[in-house]
Design brief:
The structure is a single chain. It is built from eleven helices and twelve strands. By secondary structure, the chain is of the alpha/beta class. About 40% of the residues lie in helices and about 20% in strands. A hairpin with a 2-residue loop joins strand 2 and strand 3.
Length: about 325
């Protein structure tokens, strides 16, 4: 005698009743990239449908997200080259690009949940994620922690609802937690980029963020993509230091890592469905070799199945529309 699993699949209503994982618009976080100027809407050739936006255009985009029911964004600053320097001074300015953008967004959309990416690669003339040690020619971890704390307080004062440090500096979560708590921001959550791999899937992001390193690469601080156990150790350490959520980036090629961390941590997990993953699906749609909408939903569902609660994705608006279409 064998088990007849098809008994539970033959009826459509029963299939729906027994679904183990669900996608919701509440799971989605949309990345936005702000630049100086007005009426700026620069589409990124490697990421069709993704734009660099001036603050006024960002506000229009937030209005659209509100209509779609998307409740959260993650905000990146894209600084013009002339304003960059060796330490990312604009990121340490109370009237810098991110600070000004945050204030305008929260003024116009007070209920929108705004997460800020906290890093220096978009603000430094060398494109690395902190202060460079001139002898070792890599990021000085502890000096970068000091300026990261300053950056976090600027974000907090400007109205950030959550801070997400992406530079992969050792000790960053504990450093930010201490700085925020001491300044009265003990209720401001931190989403740790705990497992951020040195990945080729980031390629198109560097077009939109203008953040390619001017020399070398980021493998001395981002993780080796061959290492799964190290990713778990990174995540558990960030949990110990006070992280409120953990992130895995990229997502699609790292489903095993997502699952492993979800099995060992009780914290909510977020995944970043990164630019290269987005660009590949868009290319497949353009070539007509995939059923784009169904492949997209299947891809995003794989993140939920692996253990993610939240999904940062350039597809977020499309997914919101598809959830209504296929409801």
């Amino acid at each position: 005698m064998f088990k007849r699993f098809r008994r539970l699949r033959l009826n459509e209503n029963l299939r729906l009743m027994l679904e183990e994982n669900y996608l919701s618009v509440n799971d989605l976080i949309y990345p936005l990239f702000v630049v100086d100027g007005k009426n700026v809407r620069n589409e990124i050739s490697s990421m069709p449908g993704v734009f660099q936006l001036s603050i006024d255009e960002i506000l229009k985009e937030c209005k659209e997200l509100e209509r779609l029911g998307i409740k959260a964004i993650i905000l990146f600053g894209v600084l013009e080259e002339a304003k960059k320097d060796s330490v990312g001074s604009d990121a340490l300015n109370e009237e810098g690009l991110i600070a000004r953008s945050l204030k305008e967004i929260k003024r116009a959309f007070p209920s929108l949940f705004v997460i800020t990416d906290l890093c220096f690669c978009e603000y430094t003339d060398h494109g690395h994620c902190g202060i460079i040690d001139p002898i070792k020619q890599t990021v000085d971890n502890d000096l970068t922690l000091e300026i990261s704390a300053k950056q976090a307080l600027i974000h907090a004062r400007a109205g950030a609802d959550m801070i997400a440090p992406s530079g992969m500096m050792d000790g960053i979560v504990g450093t930010l937690r201490k700085a925020l708590d001491e300044e009265g921001f003990e209720n401001l959550p931190i989403m740790a980029y705990s497992s951020k791999f040195a990945s080729a899937f980031y390629g198109p992001f560097r077009d939109v963020a203008n953040s390619s390193p001017s020399y070398g690469d980021r493998r001395s601080y981002q993780m080796n993509f061959a290492n799964g156990k190290e990713a778990l150790l990174e995540s558990l350490e960030d949990e110990k230091q006070g992280a409120d959520l953990l992130m895995i980036k990229p997502a699609l090629a790292y489903l095993d890592v997502i699952k492993d961390i979800s099995n060992h941590s009780k914290l909510p997990l977020c995944v970043y469905n990164v630019s290269g993953e987005y660009a590949l699906l868009k290319a497949g749609a353009r070539l007509g070799v995939i059923d784009y909408e169904r492949v997209l939903l299947e891809t995003v569902m794989s993140f939920k199945r692996a253990g993610a609660k939240l999904i940062i994705s350039y597809h977020a608006k499309e997914v919101a529309n598809l959830l209504t279409k296929f409801a």
